[in-house]
Amino acid sequence: MTSLTYLVVDRLAAGANNFSNSDSVNGWSNKSVVTEFILLGLSSSRELQLFLFFIFSAFYGAAVLGNILIILTVITDSRLHSPMYFLLSNLSFIDVCQATFATPKMIADFLNEHKTITFQGCMSQIFFLHVFGGSEMVLLVAMAYDRYIAICKPLHYMTIMSRRVCTILVGVSWATGILHSASHLAFTVDLPFCGPNQVDNFFCDLPLVIKLACLDTYILEILVLTNSGLLSLICFLLLLISYTIILATVHRRASGGASKALSTLSAHITVVVLFFGPLIFIYIWPFESFPIDKFLSVFFTVFTPLLNPMIYTLKNKDVKEAMKKLRNRHVGSKQVL
């Protein structure tokens, strides 16, 4: 075991010993007494909450329907049965999950005076947030690798990006997300919570929940920052390197194929900026609360899944034509009936 591991164990053991002392926590026992958390949400104004209910209901519906439309379009159109669109459909599936793990409860809470969530529900939100977030990071790297092969090694594209390779890339993205999330939840679920139980957000955000534990959480905060920050940094650097190489290659070419590749590439880069932009800000001050934090949380869970299908649809001629074909086929079948 490394010295850092011993330090973590010692600090956690010290915190547990302090917690077991009745004087250190005002007489509470060494078991969590918190069975639910209170979510403070986005606003305390009743009028504003009603307005936000309709706004976010529309945004959530559009995000889910838009991504499902992309998935159906890729599945039904044989021209889109290629590695790039296979990865795109998986990104849309993750976006549906990302938009669903917390947004429906947030929408329902706009109509509730008491915004509570059970301890189990809170841990579930933490788990799914990091599963979907970690999976999307790795999938974006896989999509960048796909564009790198397509643009820099076009003659070997179908050989390298086989169906088996694409399936492995998607499997690795989900496995990474699950392991990343499980490593967080492994120590969070056993933390002693004895009050307070108010989370200043519309979902259970891991840094905010950890700060509510009845022991010294400094080492845990460092571990969370290292775990999430390291994964984000590695993925971001890989994306930065791959897109730099791709842009340099495209710049050397002046053909129409290069122009089309640049158009497709711009959609990928836009999505990467929208996804990693809020994360960069969050991990600069991960355990400090700022008014913009709630906006970034909304952007990450609602707006990013909404913008992704719009970006890929508006900048991709093949997807737009396939959607028109799917719509015409659906309208035609209705007319026949």
Characterise the protein shown here.
This protein has 12 helices and 3 strands; from the N terminus they run αβαααβαααβααααα. The protein is mainly α and 337 residues long. It has a 3-stranded mixed β-sheet with strand order 2-1-3. The relative contact order is 0.14. The chain is globular.
Keywords:
three-stranded mixed β-sheet, 337 residues
Q: How would you concisely characterize the structure shown here?
A:
The protein has helices at 3-20, 46-76, 83-100, 103-109, 119-152, 157-160, 163-188, 206-210, 218-252, 256-284, 292-314, 317-336, and strands spanning 36-39, 116-118, 198-199. By secondary structure, it is mostly helical. Helix 2 (46-76) runs antiparallel to helix 4.
Straight-line distance between termini: 70 Å
Rounded mean pLDDT is 82
Give the biggest beta sheet.
3 strands, mixed
Q: Main sheet: which strands, in order across?
A: 2-1-3
Helix content: over 70%
| Beta-strand percentage range | under 5%
**H/E element order:** HEHHHEHHHEHHHHH
Discrete helix count: 12
- How many distinct beta strands? 3
Please mark out the parts with pLDDT under 50 across 5 or more consecutive residues, or reply none.
Answer: 1-30
Class based on secondary structure composition and strand pairing? mainly alpha
Radius of gyration (CA) equals 23 Å
- Shape category: globular
